[in-house]
Amino acid sequence: MSISNLYLFLSFTIPFTGLLVLWVHRQPLRHIQIYVLSSSQTGSTHSLHTTNNLVIMKREASSQARSFLKRVLFQKDERHRKMILAAPTFWVHSTDVSVLSTPQEFYSELLAQSHSATNRVSLASLYLGTGEMERSLLESLADNYRRKKDLKVRVVLDKNRGTRIERRPARHGGQSSATLFQSTVGSITTDALPDERSDTSEFRLGLFKMPLRQDDWFARFILPRLPPRYNELLTTFHLKAYAFDDTLIMTGANLSGDYFTTRQDRYWVIRDAPLAALYHDMIDILCDAAQNIDDSTGEEERGSERGGESRSSRSSNSNSNSNSMSIPSNHDRTTDHAEIKYKSMKAKLEHLMRPTLIEDWRQDRTDPPSSSSSVTSSISQAGWTCIQPTIQCAALGMRHDEMMTKNLLAKLDDIANDEIENFEKTKTKTKIKTKTAYVSTGYLNFHDHFIRLLLNMKTNVTVLAASPEANGFFNAAGISGSLPMAYSLIGHRLLREARAKEVGTFQMCEYHRSGWTYHAKGLWFTKRFTEKFNTTLTPPLLVSRSDNRSMDNMSVDSTLADNMSAGVDASFDRGGVNEVMSTTTSSFVGLTLVGSPNFGYRSVERDFESSLLIVTEDKHLQLKMERELNDLMSHVSEVDLSEFQKAERKLVGLFSWKNGWWISPASRIVRNYM
User: Fold this and answer.
1) What is the pTM (predicted TM-score) of this model?
2) How far apart, in whole angstroms, are the C-alpha atoms of residue 210 and residue 393?
3) C-alpha of 226 from chain center
4) Checking phi first, is residue 174 left (phi over 0); if not, alpha (psi -120 to 50) or beta?
5) Which listed residue, 95, 104, 413, 606, has the most CB atoms within 10 A of its CB?
6) Which residues, other chains included, contact 670 with Cβ-Cβ below 8 Å and sequence gap of 6+?
7) Cross-strand partners of 393
8) Phi and psi, residue 549, nearest 5°
9) Most confident of 39-43, 317-321, 357-361, 452-456
10) How many angstroms separate the Cα of 237 from the Cα of each of 50, 192, 381, 397, 461?
11) Fold agreement between 96-352 and 412-525+589-673
12) Which residue has the higher pLDDT, 127 or 292?
């Protein structure tokens, strides 16, 4: 072959080969399973390729049943795989996960943890109430701080909400979250015994001022001009996470009296050092980026030179004055400095929330015991739970929670495709899988992304929301009193859209409980199995469980009184042959989202949020999940379109705060802020 012909040949084959390699490389690994090479597999007749003690075998995905946990975590295509790899991942033993059911249990847990913590306490909330229960909680924390020489306390609250003066209760009038915390810091110094700690440099409050998007000109112009309370309408710091040493309490509840008594929320207590450390570090980062309490009360304006003080000088000055805080102020008044501060905070948070690679799972000490061999061979082991935290702050371009939730809903819908399986020739066994996604929100105003997903899901969808009477603003005065009606109108539009699209699998429920309000948010995914067996039996046996499953191996269904229902329908031929149909029903909840997001416009576009994706195949934790869901469902009733025709749901008059006609157009105009 001549040089010219060789050059011509290579000029065509090399680009083609490169494109072919690139195409193969980009194909989704939907047919690849990873196995650990063991002695029982060495004689396999499959074509295998071994590398680093791992065996990669090409096999159709449908040829091998995969566990629910694997199907959620290991996805078929790049779009879904990105969802899983976009968050840190923790393996926690299921016995270290508790689910509380009442506000009283939540408050008792906070008190116990505040009293016993030895190293770190990190609390993030929208605000801190000023009642007796909140004071007792702070006093318990302060007493423990005086006794424990190494204890560090960090509290982060929303700046606007945390500095708003509370009007009720009257005996605590004139107090705000910030001033209550300030008085507690003062008591640490004045009440300390000789052998106790009086230095308050590690007892810090950060008042977090939410960043605004560069293109949000309306908020940038109007927010500084709004009075207290109304300046919370546009954006808030909405994270609710409470970490004590190696324990994390993830919830949607604020640190306020009604959340400790009659405001229903969700409360997950997880004892895992790496997961708790992540939230300790997250709250540390937020606290460093937040304002000093003196900045919020105007002291900074009275002394601009404070902005240049060193950390050590401010700490020493604060220790000599019990009414000032020892929190280092990171607040800068100029826009340029504020942007630099937020960019630094974002970089730290992005680093903290960096993805966990599969290789890292084998090294992490929270892995299941056998994960050093193979991730896929151990994720289904009984007793282990996978937890993935997310954060959301659209103003800084951090949309982890939004993307995870959207992709998770899409994945759960894919799982819902398999409805009926028929197999075995000698008998007909029909397994009907009914899957339901329960989505709960304290304020029903789903983002359009979620509306499209929920209304197009093949699985059943049940929405849980507060009834107008269970809305936290039901008894509010002024314009706030219109919010229950506004959310009712939004719910009516959503249900009407679902019915117009003939979405028969969409259901809406409202929480009703006398004297209680509803603030629970999150998602559960349930699978309910109804198995029917037609089989031939000989007398005198009427019924037999042809699958020979014991109660220990069956999924638990706590929606039924005895966690299991079984029905029998038999026809008896005395000539000798019986034909028997046995029906067995069971269900489980294997996945949940818990945290602060409400799935609404505010959660997605305006507020700072965080949640946990929790997936497990451990039946004991699944039972806890189902009990939590059933406790909420025991106080809800289904809502149909006729409910919105009742007199109390009708708009009356023009200017009434609670039900005036103006609420309908206003709820459409300001929906992006609700």
Assistant:
1) 0.77
2) 9
3) 31
4) left
5) 606
6) none
7) 398
8) -90, 140
9) 452-456
10) 50, 33, 38, 15, 29
11) yes
12) 127
At 193, is the pLDDT very low, low, confident or very high (cuts 50, 70, 90)?
confident
What is the CATH topology of the domain spanning 96-352? Endonuclease; Chain A (3.30.870)
**Pick from 302, 268, 486, 300: nearest CA to 387:** 268
> Of the given ranges (46-50, 436-440, 587-591), which has the lowest mean pLDDT?
46-50
Q: What are phi and psi of 334, to 5 degrees?
A: -80, 150
Q: What tokens does 20 get?
A: 């072919």
Do the Cβ atoms of 126 and 161 come closer than 8 Å? yes
Residue 478 near residue 638 (C-beta atoms within 8 A): no
In angstroms, the CA 129 to CA 544 distance is 59
Alpha-carbon torsion (64, 69, 74, 77), positive or negative: positive
| pLDDT recorded at residue 564 | 31
Nearest to 156 by CA among 128, 182, 183, 190: 128
CB 526 within 8 A of CB 587: yes
Range list of β-strands (E), 425-471: 428-441, 460-466
User: pLDDT for 595-626, tens place per residue?
Assistant: 999 999 999 999 999 999 999 989 999 999 99
Nearest-angstrom CA–CA distance, 244 and 143: 15
Coil/strand/helix, residue 359: helix
**Residue 311: per-residue pLDDT:** 33
**Mean pLDDT estimate for the chain:** 75
- Rounded to 5 degrees, φ, ψ at 487 are -70, -30
Question: Per CATH, which fold does 412-525+589-673 belong to?
Answer: Endonuclease; Chain A (3.30.870)
Task: Pick the range with the lowest mean pLDDT from 166-170, 505-509, 628-632.
Answer: 166-170
Domain boundaries, the chain: 25-64, 96-352, 412-525+589-673
CA 245, 251, 254 angle in degrees (round to 5)? 95
pLDDT of residue 2: 54
Contact partners, residue 189, CB within 8 Å, separation at least 6: 198, 200, 319, 322
